[in-house]
Amino acid sequence: SLKAGDKLVIKGDGCVNQNGQPILKFSKKILNEIETLKSRNFELLRAKVNFVIYWQKENIPYETIIILPKLYFEKVQHEPMQTT
Question: The whole model's pTM is what?
Answer without folding.
Answer: 0.80
